[in-house]
Amino acid sequence: MDRSLTHRFRSSFFTSPLTHLQNRHTPLTTGPVPAFQGRRTHSLTTMAAKKIGGVGQELNLIASQKLDYAAARRRVRSAFMEVQQNLDHLLFKRAPDGIRTKEWIERNSKGLEVFFRSWMPESGVRIKGAVFFCHGYGDTCTFFFEGIAKHIAASGYGVYAIDQTGFGLSEGLHGYIHSFDELADNVIEQYEKIKGRPELRGLPCFIFGQSMGGAITLKVHFRDPHGWDGLILVAPMCKISEDVLPPAAVLKAMTFLSKVFPTAKLAPQIDLAELAFREPSKKEMAVYNVICYNDRMRLRTAVELLNATRDIEMNVEKVSAPLLIIHGAADKVTDPMVSRFLYEKASSKDKTLKLYEDGYHCILEGEPDDRILTVLNDIIAWLDARCLDK
């Protein structure tokens, strides 16, 4: 494994979120957007750190709320929806028309509210299969994914997504992962309910994970190896080189402290937009991802992510479902060589690895338009090849 690549992965994992810099979209309103006049500023983060160009002072104040809890994140998302939908990005400007969208909230077995979204082909179009999405660290299933989902839905697929607990519009302390296994269990629980719907009966079902969502997807597959007709992994987080791990004593201390101070935050984060987006104009849109978690990584979260990658590395031979792995060859956040490792070790008889020259981490959001369309079309073509004869 290239040491320079693993060094990049190390810096992003241990000093900042392994984020997939996306966001949200359509409305789930929870009451009127607050005007904030006369409010005490202790409930706001530092304005300088959150200044968003192109919007007024009121929206900047709304964006600068503390987002520890879902109610605040839902208010902020509601306030920024119109701004986001008018961004000058391919995924918004050229999103197909006629897609039927829906969003809702349900409580999971742990009592937490989970936010759901769906995108269905326009009325009268035969559904070929269903795609279930797992977003990346710090992220949400809305914003950029809105355009991705609409493109897939326009090709005849039902697309479903949830915000992981602690992220986006689902309940839970923002940016906090108490148990990575619980994330996987929640995905299984929520998506099993959807797979049982009459409109999906007998159809192929695929699970699609980006970055940390790729790790969730793999953990779901290990727990339910026959539950999916295929896995789509985009820039997956699935292995950390021994060369870049902290010393054993440091890891032991981190593990201990994560039990005592689980929500405490680690070293200052770096801005991953520079590393994740190849096109400068698209990188500038990352600031509109106003409900992403972009603060310092919480201690328990870091330990859970590290343990998850170790577990995945030890079990890659158990990957047996049809497999599509997509990665930018110049990704500086997650290592494309790790995707090659996964491809070579997986026991799947049907497996495909696509490495895109010069591509960065946000291969579906931050690349030139022709590259984004190529990747989307590659995903759809892979799905079609496994659905059209079903």
UniProtKB/TrEMBL annotation:
InterPro entries given in the database record: AB_hydrolase_1, AB_hydrolase_fold, Hydrolase_4, MAG_DAG_Lipase
Cross-referenced PANTHER family: PHOSPHOLIPASE-RELATED
Protein name: Serine aminopeptidase S33 domain-containing protein
SUPFAM superfamilies membership: alpha/beta-Hydrolases
Occurrences of domain Serine aminopeptidase S33 (ranges): 127-368
